[in-house]
Amino acid sequence: MTWLVVHCKARSEDLAQENLRRQGYEVFLPQLRQRKRRQNRWQWVTGPLFPRYLFVNVALGEQDTATIRSTVGVVTLVRFGQALVPMPDAVIDYLRRCEDPALGARSDSDWPHRPGDVVEILQGPFAGLTGIYQVPKDADRAAILVDLLGRRNTVLVEREALGDVVTPATA
């Protein structure tokens, strides 16, 4: 069995993956979860690690690649000249190990803020205040130290409610 690289139509990776699976192929579409700003809000968006590309496992010589090329959502198989480009199993294994199994669980390293950063709170009951980023409490909230009622208080703020860093932490 050989992993081949499939070039898909724009934003049709999921469609191509589904149709190839229906035909009995083993398909791998590495996904990436990243924060993007949309409509002035930070959101988590999951999309392909390699836009317009996925991998399909084929028994060359036994299976005809024409069925892959004619699949809805697929443009062609990647080639160097006339030769199909095989992807080493080690690369596929590495990509699978790096991919988050839950595809939704985030680690502390995914937070764009570091302890000590001065951040602005954009939404919620503390909107308009600035505070000092302390630590992430869970996947969706962080502890922020704010001046409130004449004292410094630690408040939990939704991740999406935090703005950009106003003053970076000094190392």
TrEMBL record:
Signal peptide: none annotated. InterPro entries: NGN-like_dom, NGN_dom_sf, NusG-like, Translation_prot_SH3-like_sf. SMART domains: NGN (SM00738). It comes from Pseudohaliea rubra DSM 19751. Keywords: Transcription, Transcription antitermination, Transcription regulation. GO terms for cellular component: cytosol. This is NusG-like N-terminal domain-containing protein. One of its GO terms (biological process) is DNA-templated transcription elongation. Residues 1-99 form the NusG-like N-terminal domain. It comes from the Bacteria.
